[in-house]
Amino acid sequence: MGNLTVEFFEKTLRNPVMNASGTLGYGKEIEPLWGIETLGTYVTKGLSAKPHHGNPTPRVWEERNGMINSIGLQNIGVERFFDEYFPYFKKRKTPVIVNFFGFTEEEYLACAAKVKPDPFIVALEINLSCPNIKKGGISFGKEPGAVFEIVKHVKSVTKLPLIAKLTPEVRNIAEIAQAAHEGGADGLTLINTMPAAVVDVKSRNIPIKGGLSGPILKPIALRAVYECSKAVPIPIIGAGGIMNTEDAISFFMAGARAIQIGTATFVDPYAIPKIIRGIDEYLDAHGCSGIGDIVGIARDQ
Amino acid sequence: MDDIEATIIQNKHIVSNYYTLKLRLSGSMGRVLPGQFVMLKIPGNEVFLRRPFSVYAYSNNTLTLMYRVVGKGTEILSKCPKNERTLVLGPLGNAFRIRKTDKYIVVAGGIGIAGVHTLIKRLGKKASIFYGCTNKEELSLINDMLHLNPMVSTLDGSCGFEGNVIALLGSYIESTKGEDRQIFVCGPAGMARNLRKLIEKDRTPCQVLVEERMACGLGLCFGCVIKTIDEKEPYKRACKEGPVFDLWEILL
């Protein structure tokens, strides 16, 4: 057994592997299969200041090498999460990253302010690829100025470290990363799903429009990790199409200090524990003292 | 619960686009209750998400599924040969809750029979079975329950009652009025809607097994929801809170 621990915002995590937000329910659902303490840290389902119902069905669709989801950020609200689920993570000594969103800037701030610092909270993760903000009607995750502003404002209402989760649907993601960093972001998650649609030829309609995830995203995510980790000095969490150990290792080599696993869990519910074991074996086999030995080595070649 | 390795021991075409798949599991799934389902890996590399299937039958580590070819996943599955290896996760979801009553009525439409098959086996002669399908040929799907005297309807009138199964059920509901009954149903959404209209006045206890597109089957993704009357949390997960729901709690 090697050493998988990583330092993240002055906290020691067991390993650098997390679930991607919204792909492991509220955490407890995976317990019949494996213990939540397997994770380096659990990332919550996207939480909002008030509960949110989400979208009608169909909410999921399979495509070649990817899936499209249109869950619509259904969640029980940040308060209920902390009442009903957070004690369970503390009991299991598993730290949490709180992913959150809002439909207006006020909602973002209200949600962030409701999360009180706790030894078991690693950071907030702000979802910047949500629907439209009240003013202007543009998805503000795509504009450096808007990203800078929202990050700065959220930072003013919380003492917790803030991770900005960026959308890949931009012209220059390094520029957005820079804006987030300048706004005060302490880390980045790269990337979120890509907007996509499906046409059902049989019924001649578009049954689903939503976010594309899965293996098809991997090269896009790797490029984002590579470019942003060169552009900003803050830690980067890589996410997008990681299906196995080799995929995971490639993200570290591109410059990610941690990774998130999403769609892979739907394909194989044991993907996360398998990948953690795989990373450990890889580090052992290559005589590495920790994940730090390989972070960015492909990028810096 | 564990992911169980499985080998196809039979993949048999029954009629039109209906098949039964028999799998030998490398270990036990434990106790399987009527209404529960499994997530099956479709062999090969073309389909990566698993597909949910009701447990049609299960004993001695042998799992039988009945399926209808509806899309790419089931299309590929229908061509899988004997001895092909795959993975099964289950049993999953909440089962039918059988309460003590005078009369059990099981209603199924088309491939919905797969969802209530183990329930019918459990209830045996205590249940009145209503089965609706397109034509006479499809009645071969219920060959193993003919001794239970199922009442059948075909849309083309080629056998039994001509029309939909809820119309056939109507006269039975009328003739057993006042009796303590429990109804179980699995089939197209339109069928459940018609059933609801039929028993709306009496609000007969009724449970429905719903089908939705699923990604995980474990309650992780919130992809397979069904709308309910719960105003606080209208969308419930078919895989986790279901797939069996109280008919009076869901919006069809």
What does this entry show, briefly?
By secondary structure, chain A is α/β, with parallel strands linked by helices. Chain A contains eight helices and 14 strands. In chain A, strand 11 and strand 12 form a beta hairpin.
What does this structure look like?
The complex is a heterodimer of chains A (301) and B (252). With 301 residues, chain A is α/β, with parallel strands linked by helices. Chain A has helices spanning 78-91, 105-114, 144-155, 173-183, 218-231, 245-254, 264-267, 271-285, and strands at residues 6-8, 11-13, 17-19, 42-43, 60-63, 66-69, 96-100, 121-127, 162-166, 187-190, 194-200, 205-213, 236-239, 258-261. An 8-stranded parallel beta sheet of chain A has the order 3-14-13-10-9-8-7-4. In chain A, helix 4 packs across helix 5. The longest helix of chain A is centred in the C-terminal third of the chain and has 15 residues, at 271-285. The relative contact order of chain A is 0.16. The mean pLDDT of chain A is 95. Chain B is of the alpha/beta class. Chain B has a 7-stranded antiparallel beta sheet with strand order 4-3-7-1-2-6-5. In chain B, helix 4 (189-199) links the parallel strand 12 and strand 13. In chain B, helix 3 (165-175) runs parallel beside helix 4 (189-199). Chain A binds chain B through residues 22-25, 29-30, 32-33, 45, 51, 53-54, 56-62, 64-65, 67, 69, 71, 74, 76, 214-215, 265-270, and chain B through 1-3, 46-50, 72-73, 89, 212-216, 218-227, 232-235, 240.
